[in-house]
Write a structure and sequence with these properties.
By secondary structure, the chain is mostly helical. It starts with 17 loop residues before the first helix and ends with a helix.
Length: about 190
């Protein structure tokens, strides 16, 4: 004991420490939710519809809207498209950094009972880029064109759901993607 501090032994064995248990419980809950949502993919029509929705979320719909607003939207459309491009660029950088840093495998790779019911654009799942960009663009479009909410928000929700049902993302991937997209779009308007 001469000058050395004695470490107190933990009352829990190494693998039953409360923080470790919390992490394991979180993973088990998330997998259970992912499996529950993935059950909808046993219906062929659900897979066909959600695969189409997911492909829309690949980005082409948002790019088409941005180009259309820039060409036909006058000053308001130009402002909306410039803001969408800026927010999209920031989100792309954030998305790439986070995705490579976390490097979380997709559910169909690590969760028994889940299979890929659609193609994935890359190897990792966290965060959901489809959801991130869809939420960001939906916020921007809704601020500039409030009536667009009738179209963009149901589409955004379907895109987010499709990513989970098709076995490509866990719920937290989608939630964090939505938060990042919402925050970056709101910050671009100084709403936060």
């Amino acid at each position: 004991m001469h000058g050395k501090r004695q470490r107190h032994a933990s009352p829990w064995p190494e693998h039953s420490h409360p923080l470790w248990l919390e992490r394991e419980l979180w993973i088990a809950r998330e997998r259970a939710i992912a499996l529950w949502m993935h059950r909808a993919s046993t219906r062929d029509w659900v897979v066909r519809v959600l695969d189409a929705v997911s492909r829309v979320g690949d980005g082409w719909i948002w790019f088409a809207i941005i180009v259309w607003l820039w060409i036909a939207g006058g000053p308001t459309g130009t402002s909306a498209s410039v803001r969408a491009v800026g927010v999209g660029a920031v989100n792309l950088v954030l998305y790439q950094i986070i995705k490579r840093w976390i490097a979380r495998p997709r559910p169909y790779r690590t969760c028994p009972g889940i299979c890929a019911r659609a193609r994935s654009l890359d190897e990792f799942s966290f965060p959901s880029g489809h959801t991130l960009h869809s939420v960001a663009f939906s916020v921007i479009l809704t601020v500039y064109y409030p009536m667009s909410a009738i179209f963009v928000w149901p589409l955004t929700v379907l895109i987010a759901l499709s990513r989970m049902v098709l076995g490509l993302h866990y719920p937290s991937d989608v939630i964090v993607g939505a938060l990042i997209g919402g925050v970056t779009a709101a910050v671009s308007f100084n709403l936060l």
